[in-house]
Amino acid sequence: MSKPKSKVEFGDFQTPLPLARAVCELLSQRGVKPTSVVEPNCGRGNFVVASLEKFQTARKVVAADINAKHIASLRSALEGRRWPSEIDVCCGDFYCINWTQVLRTLQEPYLIIGNPPWVTNAGLGVIGGSNLPEKSNFQRHSGLDAVTGKGNFDISEWMLIRESEWLNGRAGTLAMLCKKAVARKVLLHAWKNSMQLCGASIYPVDAMDHFNAAVEACLLVCDFSPGCVSRECNVHATLSDGPGRTIFGFRDGRLVADVLAYEQTKRLATKSGTYKWRSGIKHDCSEVMELNTEGTSYRNGLGETVELERSYLYPMLKGSKLANGNHEKPEQWMVVPQCHIGEATGQIKQLAPKTWKYLCDHAGRLKRRASVIYKGRPPFSIFGVGDYAFAPWKVAISGLYKKLEFRVIGPRHGKPVVLDDTCYFLPCQSELEARYLADILDSGAAKDFYTSLIFWDAKRPITVEILRQLDIDALSKELGIEITAHPTVLEFKLTT
User: Fold this and answer.
1) Superfamily per CATH, domain 5-251
2) pLDDT for position 424
3) How far apart are CA 490 and CA 486, in angstroms?
4) pTM of the full predicted structure?
């Protein structure tokens, strides 16, 4: 059953009172003794009630929510009981309230607590939602990253970054329920900007049990104090105050999943290199651009059987087949209308009239592609395409699967195999080069280094940014093989 638009737009997953109480109990065990408690997205107010019950040191509690019915529910829950704290509850929009001014009226130490919306800005765009912050590239992505998938963010990420900025230079604690991926992004922002953090911890939360949501969720706890500098986060096994299971953090300008493992392998971190990892082709219209062989014809994702010239057709591999080892005989095809980004496509009409007609017949679908990267581009444009995409051999890996397995991909049907945009690859000019690279990437040293960087609970655990962190030249030297590159030949020499 689909969720109501209002629930999606406002990320309205109410925190059960037992969970709110467990969080407050944990914070108390950690030594949190707030003078002021702030709940900027209080919903029906279970965190407000749990905080009032637990923190006797709190002189004032401030809570707000955009939903008037939720505020009425909270006020009803507070009636009839005596509370030692002054309580200020209001109906208001998070984005319109001057929270900096609110905090100036309160005494330190602060506790900012809650459960902000679990929805992305792209998700709101799909339903036409307006519960968004003013548009800005707040993550400071550059170039294409700013308008592709990286420009998508969780609303809670934006809110938590603002809340951490309120506490920077002050004494207080930020304690928020959120996705694990959001928690890491918030911490990365704090570490990159040298915020005055004493420490941070992440505790797992069963989102399916508490919210009927299939996401990796957690409680993020950040302790702030003037003059403190910490760039590490303890990851706990349960919602308790026991010792952390692992420690992730910020090292050498990069986010690392395991600080100790990274320190042991950072000698292999990228300084410069001969090789550069690439992403597969992005087209965002698989029902048109991806085809299956059917006799001498092809069938697309719409169930249509079509006849096309081979000029713009390339054998393709999807990430699922690559990850599962079904990569030896790719039988799917991709329409690749460009050899490089921004190339004109009008020449297809003369060179391959059937392909041109096919693309024109489906121009409406291609024009409706949501990403802004296609706006102002030639008709039928794609991305992730260049000389590298047509390299005859590739060493490839799927980004969506929780395993480090590198595959050697060779040409099929006399043409190079192309990959979809869930895959990453190193372009190679020969089978020898590809197998050599696959072998060294399969080494224990390479896997130990990558494992120190990968968060396996992420939606896409392996990314091109992570793959590029490894200095392949340094790795090859450590393994005793020297690469000598020439314009027309690549030689491999044993150095030991």
Assistant:
1) Vaccinia Virus protein VP39 (3.40.50.150)
2) 98
3) 6
4) 0.85
